Amino acid sequence: HDRAIRVGLLGEGITASLTPPMHRQEALLLGLDYEYRVIDIAETGETPDDLPRILDRVLAQGYDAINVTHPFKQRVIDHIAALSPSAERLGAVNLIEFGEAGAVGHNTDWIGYRDAVEIGIGDVRGRRVVQVGAGGAGSATAYALLSLGVGELAIADADAARASELLARLAGPFPGGRVRAIALDELPGAFSRAHGVVHATPTGMALSPGLPFDPEAVNRDAWISEVVYLPLETQLLRAATVLGHRVLDGGMMAVGQAYHSLRIITGLDPDRARMRAHFLGL
Ligand code: NAD
Which residue of 114, 200, 248, 265 pairs with 120 in a disulfide if CB–CB is 3.0 to 4.6 A? Predict the structure, then answer.
């Protein structure tokens, strides 16, 4: 590169996101001339419908890549030339690279979560896992768990249609009936037999505090994994820790998606442990 690598984060209400400082710090330590800007439609006064214009502007401004978050992860798909196979199967993009061949969409959320499970939990092959939440984060965690070979994945969502939609999306890439959608009232039974539980709803964030489900219902030997990372220790993780569960915080996934995005953008191998340490200090 004979000029700065220019990257951004496109989303709505993202001024508190920890992704920009993670990229900036690691890029600095890698010795790169690297800009990471925030493109927040809550600040520019634009709406999600302005997406085509926003993408044109980003291209004209010479961006090499952008990360994409709520509410654009699905919407951007109609505006990019090519998708990585997993982004295509997930129907969600969180990284767009602008290259000679046009825009290419990737999904590093699921890879970030896959690595988080491998590092923080270990081998989950053949295990019974229950997941609560089937939205954007839940699609990535479910995809990762099935890729890692879990034996059974039961998914529940307060909006039952979302659980069945996710099931339909996963049935193609993961045939064999390992994944099913269950109703909320089936959770206690499923929890009692689970080897692991994944929480993938926004419950526990500052704006929606509380517990998403009763952790007392979960098999004491099961690990409990969280996608929420602001705060890093949610009410669920605190309760789970007190009950003696092994826990995986949402920060591991957040660091993982940033690590893989930076790796794809730069072609270098960032230092994931250093990124995690920096993240914990933010
Ligand atoms: P989303 O709105 O796409 O999906 C949330 C789903 O949870 C919805 O389908 C909703 O019906 C369901 N739900 C809400 N409350 C529920 C409850 N009590 N029981 C059952 N289902 C319930 O949201 P999202 O984009 O998936 O984000 C969820 C959380 O994940 C947010 O806190 C977000 O910040 C976090 N997130 C973390 C990472 C990470 O890297 N750690 C990545 C993406 C998202």
Answer: 248
